[in-house]
Structures are given as structure tokens and as C-alpha cells.
Design brief:
The protein is 45% helix and 15% strand. By secondary structure, the chain is an alpha/beta fold. A hairpin with a 4-residue loop joins strand 1 and strand 2. It is globular. InterPro entries: Aminoacid_DH-like_N_sf, Glu/Leu/Phe/Val/Trp_DH, Glu/Leu/Phe/Val/Trp_DH_C, Glu/Leu/Phe/Val/Trp_DH_dimer, Glu/Leu/Phe/Val_DH_AS, Glu/Phe/Leu/Val/Trp_DH_bac/arc, NAD(P)-bd_dom_sf.
Length: 354
């Protein structure tokens, strides 16, 4: 591929340390709103091209997510190519931290798939441009707490738009994935009076549901979940949950979930509309996690971060209103608002300061 064919990214950095086995790529899509913030994904990609494609897609998504979350932060992401179970080490993480430090604050890293708060504590031994750290080291800890809270707020806004009330009481919600976010989301839904149907391939997660929330109905797989009599579908596991096969059989009227990149391709947004299904853009409603880790940069305060994550309710409301006014899918409306903010605020950087 053309090395400059990077979908408009400002900077793409390839990092290698042979002694530790580090092979990493840092993608900075935009710093129009401020330093780029996005997690580090540690994953055994099939090849270098797959790793590059993922970091470009993810870093672009972070720019839009941070813009819609109202943060003064741009979008970036990093991937470390390798199996974390085999090659992750203190030396590798510290070598990666040195590369992050070399960017002098253009990029802040945090956790993602394959990396955890303990890893960020190690990375932080080599760079100050890291967030998502453990509570013991002054960080926010588990970011899934506010991710789930934000998804719940987005779901409330979708419920208001669809049924006239910002509550899930009396509604049936299908949760696909009972990982950290799915568990917290299930708790919020049960507390709000919703009926929950859930699935997860992990038996430990299912056992948790049986013990903690015995009212939750468990089904064997996602195929059974989406064809169940549900009002809301909440994909909280892998991306691509909505595709040409699933949308026609989906019985829900609303889709609001925590998974990233839920639309298998751009045409799915229109397909959802054709089937009368309201979709709340994933990068808007799942922004509670990035709000939480971003708050660490100025000294973490949980109540302040939770208040900002609660604002996802109003942001989702605004997107759904704009989508209706302009006759476009909510995903398009969200993109337009994000691009508008990046352009308007980014323009201010041209005002020279002595």
C-alpha cells in the first residue's frame, strides 16, 4: 500500500525493539482538539497489514469518540503485534513506553484489548503520557464502570425517543456479552426495572448471572438472543454485530450497546432504518470509558467523570434529533457533529498566541 494512504491520519509511527520483541504501531488521526488519546491493543494479528489496518480504523474512531464526548483531546490508538500470553514482558512494555514518551505528548495511551491497568503502570515507568492506571498509582482503575453507565444513558435516550419515556422499565433488553461492561450494564437495567435476556460463551460469566441476577434469562447464543422477543439489543462483545444477515431477523426496535464498530459496513445504518430499528452510534454511547481515563489527566475525580458520562444521555438525544431533522441515519448525524466540532475548535489553533 501507499504509505501515505492512511485515511487522513496526521502521523503513523512504527516502533520496534528487537531485544524485547516489541513491534508496535501508533496511529494519530487528529490533534485538532488536543493531544491524541486512545488505548493500546495487544493482539496476535495475522500479518503486518492487518495490524496497520486495525490501528488506522481504531485511531480514526477515537477522534470521533473524543469529539462527541466533549473532550479537548484528539484521536489516536496503538497496537502491539504479538500474543500477549507469550511475549508480553516488563521489558517490552517499558520499551513501548519509551516510544510513547518520544512523541512528547502528541499521544496519550491507555488500556485496550490485551492490556490492563497493571500494564499501564509498567508503561508509566517510562512515560508520563499514560492514563488508565491502577487506583494504587492514582488512576481510575476499571474503566468499564463508566462505560456501562454511559451505555445505559444512551439507552435511556433511545427509549425516550422510541417510547416517550427515558426508562427501560417494562422493556426487555437482550445483552450479548457478560464481560465487565455487560455485567455492569445488566445491573443498571435490572435496577431500572427492565427484563434482561443475555448470552455469553464463557460459562463463568453465565454462572455470575445465575448467582447475581437470577431473574436474567440466559440463552445459548447470539442467534437465539436476536430472534427473541426483545425491545432493545445491546451488543457488548465483538464488533461487526450488525450485518446483512442479523439485521433482517433482529426483533428489537432499538440497538444500544458497548461493542466497538458494531456496523459490519457503512450500509448497515441504512438497512437498520429500513427495518424500523433505531441505532445509537456505538462510539457515542460507549464513551464513558474514555471519559473516565481522560479525567485522570487532570487528577481523577470519580463524581466529576460520572457527571460527564451522564451527559451521554443529552448527546444521544441531540444526535437522534439531528438525524430526524436532516433525514439521515443516527451514525451519519453523529459523524457530522463530531466533524463540525473538530473543524470549529481546531480552527482556533490558527489564532496565534504570544
Amino acid at each position: 500500500m501507499d504509505v501515505f494512504d492512511t485515511d487522513g491520519h496526521e502521523q503513523v509511527v512504527f516502533c520496534q525493539d528487537r531485544a524485547t520483541g516489541l513491534k508496535a504501531i501508533i496511529g494519530i488521526y487528529s490533534t485538532a482538539l488536543g493531544p491524541a488519546l486512545g488505548g493500546t491493543r495487544f493482539y496476535p494479528y495475522e500479518n503486518e497489514a492487518a495490524a496497520l489496518a486495525d490501528v488506522l480504523k481504531l485511531s480514526r474512531g477515537m477522534a470521533y469518540k473524543n469529539a462527541m464526548a466533549g473532550l479537548d483531546l484528539g484521536g489516536g490508538k496503538a497496537v502491539i503485534w504479538g500474543d500477549p500470553a507469550r511475549v508480553k514482558s516488563e521489558g517490552l512494555l517499558r520499551a513501548y513506553g519509551r516510544f510513547v514518551e518520544s512523541l512528547r505528548g502528541r499521544y496519550y495511551t491507555a488500556c485496550d484489548v490485551g492490556t490492563y491497568v497493571q500494564d499501564m503502570d509498567v508503561v508509566a515507568r517510562e512515560t508520563k503520557f499514560v492514563t488508565g492506571r491502577s487506583v494504587e498509582h492514582g488512576g481510575a482503575g476499571d474503566s468499564s464502570v463508566l462505560t456501562a453507565w454511559g451505555v445505559f444513558q444512551g439507552m435511556r435516550a433511545a427509549a425516550e425517543h422510541t417510547w416517550g419515556t427515558p426508562s427501560l422499565r417494562g422493556r426487555t433488553v437482550g445483552v450479548a456479552g457478560l464481560g465487565k461492561v455487560g455485567k455492569y450494564l445488566t445491573g443498571h437495567l435490572v435496577e431500572d426495572g427492565a427484563s434482561v435476556i443475555a448470552t455469553d460463551p464463557n460459562e463463568t460469566a453465565l454462572a455470575w448471572a445465575r448467582t447475581t441476577h437470577p431473574s436474567v434469562q440466559l440463552v445459548p447464543d447470539t442467534a437465539a438472543l436476536i430472534t427473541s422477543d426483545i425491545d432493545v439489543y445491546a451488543p457488548c462483545a465483538l464488533g461487526g454485530a450488525l450485518d446483512d444477515d442479523t439485521v433482517p431477523v433482529l426483533r428489537a426496535k432499538v440497538v444500544t450497546g458497548a461493542a466497538n464498530n458494531q456496523l459490519a459496513h457503512t450500509g448497515i445504518g441504512k438497512l437498520l432504518e429500513e427495518h424500523g430499528i433505531l441505532y445509537t452510534p456505538d462510539y457515542v454511547v460507549n464513551a464513558g470509558g474514555v471519559i473516565q481515563v481522560a479525567d485522570e489527566i487532570e487528577g481523577f475525580n470519580f463524581e466529576r467523570a460520572k457527571l460527564r458520562a451522564t451527559g451521554i444521555f443529552e448527546t444521544t438525544r441531540r444526535i437522534l434529533q439531528l438525524a430526524g431533522d436532516e433525514g439521515v441515519p443516527p451514525a451519519v448525524a453523529a459523524d457530522r457533529l463530531a466533524e463540525r466540532r473538530m473543524a470549529e475548535v481546531g480552527r482556533l489553533r490558527s489564532i496565534y498566541l504570544n
